[in-house]
Specification:
The chain has 172 residues and is mainly alpha-helical. It contains 6 helices and no strands. The longest helix is centred in the N-terminal third of the chain and has 30 residues. It starts with a helix and ends with a helix. 0% of the residues are buried. Keywords: Membrane, Transmembrane, Transmembrane helix.
Amino acid sequence: MEKENNNEEAFRKLLKTVTPEIPEADFTQRVVNNVAIEMQHAAAIEELALKTLLKKMQPEQPSAAFTNNLLLKLQPAPKVIAYKPVISRKTWLWIAACITLALLACLFIPGSQSDQPSQIISAIDSVARPAYLISDKMNKLPELYSFAIIGLASLMLFDYFIRLKTKRLAKI
């Protein structure tokens, strides 16, 4: 035990007396250069081995039926569901024609001068009265309001057709 303690103390004294080594100024640069040279050498060996391997190996040629077999294994693309509108184009045209006829009739049929409600509003009210959808105040609306409502509806329909046409032109 004493011998070990003496050895440790002697070792500690020796370490205290020895000064650490100071590397030269270009030490780091030399290490980096050596590593770079080794990497270049390894890359050159790899490149040479790859070239040798590629020269020895001939590319494989697929069989004549390879393309046909591959195409048969591929599944056809799923069928795309065609867009079908809820209301067809023909129906929209009939609706537009009916609204146009109603507007023309409103323009050319003279309005009544009495305080009676308009015939259009009376017709709407008579249809909707059982369901109580339109109140009794609807009869007192002027005829001009019904023209305005029909006019706005036809303008919205006209706008729909214009937008539909411009979208088709953009696709072509």
